[in-house]
Amino acid sequence: MKSLKLIISLFVIGAVIGFIAYSTSLKTTNAVDAVAYNNAVVEEQNLLTQKFLVFNTKLSTDTLTEEEVIEEHGKLFEGAQVALVNIENLDIPKGSEEFTQAAKDLVNFYIDILDDEYREIINVAYSDEVTLADADEMEVIVTTITEEENELLQKFVYEQQQFAEQSGFELQEV
User: Which position has the higher pLDDT, 75 or 26?
Assistant: First the structure.
């Protein structure tokens, strides 16, 4: 059970990546809107990242009951849904369509895994007996999630960079 929780913890830590963008070169009025839009998308990503970290911290304390973990999972799931709605409700500046889609794809991915794989992991983690086969299956799930997430993150970062270049501002990772 502890090794399964360690796998879950490692995944969640790896799963939460955020980028903060600052404008270092404002060339046009459109760039101001683009920077504000980029920062709003990044803020949603960062808030979701914080929710993953809170969930991971609470899960790794090994003091929560199954009901408490399910409740915390529900909060994280709801937070991901709110992030998606907030991104969808932003005024989209010209040229941000690909970046917007990459952001929505990433958040939708989080919603999907929280609704499916995370529920399965929680069920196994709190079952009466976790077998070696269960642990192996969870490892495969975590590996698959990590690979998919990495692809989506790379696409998100690429589209964010393209959007920044097209809009006349530079990104800085913090």
Answer: 75
